[in-house]
Design brief:
Layout (H helix, E strand, L loop, with lengths): L3 E4 L4 E4 L7 E6 L10 H19 L3 E6 L14 H9 L3 H18 L15 H13 L3 E4 L2 E4 L36 E6 L15 E3 L1 H13 L3 E7 L3 H16 L4 E7 L2 E3 L2 E2 L10 H7 L2 H8 L8 E3 L1 H25 L9 H19 L4 H19 L7 H18 L13 H21 L3 H13 L2 E6 L2 E6 L1
Helix pairs in contact: 2-3, 4-5, 4-6, 5-6, 8-9, 9-11, 9-12, 10-11, 10-12, 13-14
Length: 481
């Protein structure tokens, strides 16, 4: 099956065919850098990380652009969060930007999220934004008043086509300060006149000011991807007004379609509640990484379809961690056995399971990047692998290599849930394995002394920890349940 993507713009799954065969141009709305990134951001950027990796795995050349918003992101109350943080910290705004931008990329690196090919900053593209605003004014889609420039939504009959929020159904006040200087309450700012207290300001044809939030993405996407590109991604919260405004100003300025496919990532809640610092449930990526391996966080995020909401809780992540450990147990057994495996060609049954896992994985990912089903394909393979390698059957190197490559290519290179090496466990796995082997040795000594009570106690204690023992003629083997 060829790749199908649910296009939010058309409200249906559509066959994905890039504008230029074999080459995908993709833009994703980036972070406004004024605080530490949280697990909601992790959900968003892991989702698009998997999209890019699967496209490349499928043979596409992908140009991936993700902006950094470091100016102009006005909140409902008209304040800029970067300036607000800078004033509170008694720092320069760009000092705040640099600190949290570096922190964001550190978090993404730790989660195994590849860096975009281009990470343009809004503050570095002021000329491009001014040029687009001038084009919109010249074409009659924007107007200047008191040093500010607004987009006139009534000049675009398609305004609202992404979110299905038409002008007559909208209410004033959506992320834009309502002022009498606007012709229509739904009009949005392209350029704002800088009040005396506003720190970030640039010269423009309309006086000193700063760009509106939406114009940056349109200007930078045009510069690096052209008037029309293949995929635009972002969080569901960005659909309106941000993405809607992007479409309007871009298509009116360029007289061309903006993005062909629109993808939105579902929201993340914490214990059933929207995440917020005031609620005390704000979980940064750094804090989450102190508790869980990055691969576990990725597997948790991918346990729901990218477009679906997901609830973060310790119980939910720990449940995923147990499933991840079962998979890692199979990976470790495979890698360990491969090091000393004989050069035989047996194993037709497991090879059939490998091929089925690959086929099921591809079918799932081609169906709008369905990571829950893709992961399920690897979990089914894991059951087969654990059963085979714990059975005492001799498995040849070519078979083990096919298993290992499947885990590495699909679970590792695409989903990012299988590390290339188990170093990220920082010796925990080897230490735990050593402790298990020690307990098995103590149990063997108890069995040799016919101390069945002690032998059963050790077996039951290990079972309670999820370690299952199997006594064979050639000794005792263990696996993580």
């Amino acid at each position: 099956m060829a790749l199908q993507i649910f296009n939010v713009l058309g409200r249906e799954k559509q066959l994905f065919q890039p504008i230029e065969p074999g080459f995908v141009r993709m833009y994703v709305c980036g972070l406004t850098v004024y605080d530490y990134a949280h697990i909601g951001h992790a959900k968003n950027y892991i989702a698009f990380d998997v999209v890019v990796k699967y496209l490349r795995h499928s043979g596409y050349n992908v140009l991936y652009v993700q902006n950094i918003t470091d100016v102009g992101h006005l909140r409902d109350d008209g304040t800029d969060p970067i300036i607000k943080k800078a004033l509170r910290a008694q720092s320069a705004p760009m000092q705040i930007v640099e600190m949290y931008a570096r922190s964001f990329f550190e978090d993404m690196d730790a989660l195994g999220v590849i860096r975009p090919d281009i990470s343009p900053r809004a503050s570095a593209h002021i000329p491009e934004q001014i040029k687009m605003i001038q084009t919109l004014i010249r074409k009659g889609h924007a107007y200047e008043v008191n040093g500010s420039v607004y987009f006139d939504v009534t000049t675009d009959p398609d305004y609202g086509k992404l979110s299905n929020r038409r002008i007559d159904a909208q209410q004033a006040g959506s992320r834009e300060e309502i002022r009498g200087e606007k012709r229509n309450p739904e009009d949005f700012a392209l350029w704002k006149n800088a009040e005396p207290e506003h720190i970030l300001r640039w010269d423009s044809p309309w006086g000193e000011g700063f760009p509106g939030w939406h114009i940056e993405c349109s200007a930078m996407a045009k510069k690096y991807l052209g008037d029309t590109f293949d995929i635009h991604g972002g969080g569901i919260d960005n659909m309106f007004p941000h993405n809607e405004s992007e479409i309007a100003q871009s298509e009116c300025a360029n007289d061309a379609d903006y993005a062909r496919f629109w993808m939105h990532v579902g929201s993340l809640t914490v214990d059933g509640m929207k995440m917020g610092k005031s609620l005390g449930n704000f979980v940064t990526i750094k804090d989450a990484l102190k508790r869980y391996r990055p691969e576990v966080i990725r597997m948790f995020v991918q346990s729901a379809h990218y477009s679906s909401p997901i609830d973060y809780s310790d119980d939910a992540v720990q449940g995923v961690a147990r499933g991840h450990e079962r998979m890692m147990n199979a990976v470790r057994l495979t890698r360990r056995a491969l090091a000393t495996a004989p050069q035989t060609d047996d194993g037709n049954a497991i090879l059939a399971a490998v091929e089925k896992a690959r086929a099921d994985f591809t079918a799932a990912m081609d169906d709008d990047f369905n990571t829950p089903l893709a992961t399920a394909a690897l979990q089914e393979l894991t059951r087969e692998v654990n059963a085979l390698l714990n059975s005492g059957t001799t498995v040849g190197a070519s078979v083990l290599k096919a298993i290992a490559e499947t885990y590495d290519q699909l679970g590792g290179a695409v989903l990012g849930i299988i590390p290339a090496t188990d170093d990220s466990a920082a010796g925990n796995a080897s230490r735990e394995a050593g402790l298990i082997e020690l307990l098995i040795k103590l149990r063997s000594e108890a069995r040799a002394a016919k101390n069945w009570k002690e032998s059963d106690r050790l077996r039951d204690e290990l079972a309670a920890l999820g370690v299952i023992l199997e006594d064979r003629a050639d000794g005792t083997v263990w696996k993580v349940n």
